[in-house]
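tool=predict chain=A
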Amino acid sequence: MEHNEVFRERVPHSEPGYPFRINCGNPLASNHWHDELEWIYIMSGMLQLHINGVEYRGQENDIFVVNRNEIHGISRTTPDVEFYVFVFDLNMLSFADDDLSQKQFIQPLLDGSIRFFNKPESTYLMRAVFNRVFSYNVEKQPGYMLATKAALLEFISLMIANGQYSTEQIELQDEMRIALVKRIALYISNHIGEKITLEEISARFNMAPKYFCRFFKKNFKMTLIEYVNCKKVEQAVSLIGQGKDSITEIAISCGFSNTSYFTRIFKKVTGYTPSQYKFVMGQSADLTP
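tool=predict ok
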């Protein structure tokens, strides 16, 4: 039985009392969604991501904005890509008094009546805000949380001033498609330890296998097998980070029949072998705020 109404990203995004987190360029991100806003800034290299079924290609200095509860993921990167991601609860920017800024902008962002463009025009001022926020949360000088809140509000004001938002509501047909994509993602997540066949999952969602394949590829930007393998590799990355199990044990626990096949799939998804990935992640761990 599906234990969640919707499958949301399970990685914790913040520390208690400070609902803001920086993720430094983890290229593993299959379809997921969450209540928080997510802002992505690419410093170098290229990546390919999709938001609510629309595919985007990002390069140096590009900025992407993922609104609350939008399905998104990163499907491909170049080896030299460097980017960081801000994930935060919009409520942290709400005002205690219900002033005009709260009524006209913050509350509409919270209830979805205002949505930012997913790929806004990247300006020098916007990139400067990203760099300041990153520095605040690395250095953690007294008052850095307050400085972060002020900078996030500044970024929102720049988006509003530049007209990088929409008040148009999502059409019913798109809402139904997005809801179906979330149900499929939830089902796969809850059964990732089992063998998932095309015949079984297409019947589960009342589709012919050929139509399910077309629908899945269009909305997930990869085939069913590729997506399932990507989810298994994400699980493996988490286990590698814990440092408790051997590569062979991790391969078996993630549903791979042998380590050579696991290594081949892992490298296809991440660009590294499991051993290389463990080394690289260990080298970069000290850079994460």
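The first helix runs from residue 100 to 111. Residues 136 and 144 are 5 Å apart (CA to CA).
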